Amino acid sequence: MKRRLLLVSNSTLHGSGYLDHCQQHISSFFGKNVKRVLFVPYALHDRDAYTKTARNKFKTLGYEVDGIHEAADPVEAVRKAEGIFIGGGNTFRLLKSLYDNNVVAEIRKRVMEDGVPYMGSSAGTNVATISINTTNDMPIVFPPTFSAIGLVPFNINPHYLDPDPNSRHMGETREQRITQYHEEPDTPSVLGLREGSLLLVEGNKATLLGSTKARLFTSGKPSVEYDPGSDLSFLLSDAR
Amino acid sequence: MKRRLLLVSNSTLHGSGYLDHCQQHISSFFGKNVKRVLFVPYALHDRDAYTKTARNKFKTLGYEVDGIHEAADPVEAVRKAEGIFIGGGNTFRLLKSLYDNNVVAEIRKRVMEDGVPYMGSSAGTNVATISINTTNDMPIVFPPTFSAIGLVPFNINPHYLDPDPNSRHMGETREQRITQYHEEPDTPSVLGLREGSLLLVEGNKATLLGSTKARLFTSGKPSVEYDPGSDLSFLLSDAR
Ligand SMILES: [Ca+2]
Ligand SMILES: [Ca+2]
């Protein structure tokens, strides 16, 4: 299992610039051997503008960026990629575009079999997991399935948000939403990654990185908090 | 067109009990001729407990409640219904159950052709519209389509929430989410119903009721605020 993943909760932390809060993790994740990163901007409407944003940031870290939408054949672009970064935006739009462009299976193969490093942020983290069932996004388009690339066998909830005791709003809290998910049969664990959190996966080892704790929800069990630095490798084999 | 709809943003307003804030509207909507209301509890996991909650409240208003899940044949229950109330919870679970139980077309027929009054709250309001594309809920199950009962030709966003200028959270605001929806082609208007708002539809007349303004989002146009009492009938013919 050659899998290497950097799954980021959010691309921008309040008060800092695009990917600033995790740039050292990005540099050590892609390392010196990767020169070019294939960027997937499908989650936002303006793919050119989004690719420019990613390109400008990655340039400061020493990497060239190719937008997958700039390639004549997106599957071929995945086949040749040295590294992959899928950015955030709307998860439904992103997943539908991944299927429309026939790249889901090819990305899975490249990451799981060839060890191509995969970085995801927000929606790009959702689609790396078993399914998009725990995205926060609005279902603005209908994808052919909620099953995703499946690089890990559990779910992630990015931008995880604690209940606000002062709120007068009566919509479900994030915890209530995840609890509703776990009322459904055979639903895997959900790792709530607060803004500022990242999960690094290397083969069968998973480590929580970043500046905040993460909260793990498992069906039928009390939820558990994990500090940055925690070993979460058990999630890779024991998702239920 | 006999359609009569009472589309409520939220079942419970902060600081008051279940359906308290709209109980006078409920009484005048179902009136004296309706004796029994068919309740659809599909949006929550515990259908019996949910039906009990609705039954207790409607009893204080003079109506008996039948849970659709208690009927041997849910389609037959819709055929015999004097009035329908679909409660809130998870919109994806609700829509999937409506399709699993084959009641979508029958509810549409009863409301549009026979004039059976339809009340929806939150998720029950989402499914009354053209589609569930503008629900706030988590996609915990995969419905066969996002197309809904289609009693009105536009979308509603229940629990509409204004951006919080003090928030440090970087997830999309509600307005940004609806804007992303309108980046997609041929998307209808979205009526953002704040908590405390209701929309009453009688034939081809639509009136905003309740205690708060509503915000209307139309693709390619600036959004517009409407006061309680506003005539929104134009939405019934001119959804784009
Ligand atoms: Ca998003
Ligand atoms: Ca809900």
From TrEMBL, chains A, B:
The keyword Thylakoid does not apply. Its EC number is 3.4.13.21. GO terms for biological process: proteolysis. Keywords: Cytoplasm, Dipeptidase, Hydrolase, Protease, Serine protease. SUPFAM superfamilies: Class I glutamine amidotransferase-like. Gene3D superfamilies: 3.40.50.880. GO terms for molecular function: dipeptidase activity; serine-type peptidase activity. It catalyses: Dipeptidase E catalyzes the hydrolysis of dipeptides Asp-|-Xaa. It does not act on peptides with N-terminal Glu, Asn or Gln, nor does it cleave isoaspartyl peptides. The keyword RNA-binding does not apply. It holds the Pfam family Peptidase_S51. InterPro entries: Class_I_gatase-like, Peptidase_S51. Its main location: cytoplasm. One of its GO terms (cellular component) is cytoplasm. It is found in: Cytoplasm. Belongs to the peptidase S51 family. Hydrolyzes dipeptides containing N-terminal aspartate residues. This is dipeptidase E. It comes from Fundulus heteroclitus.
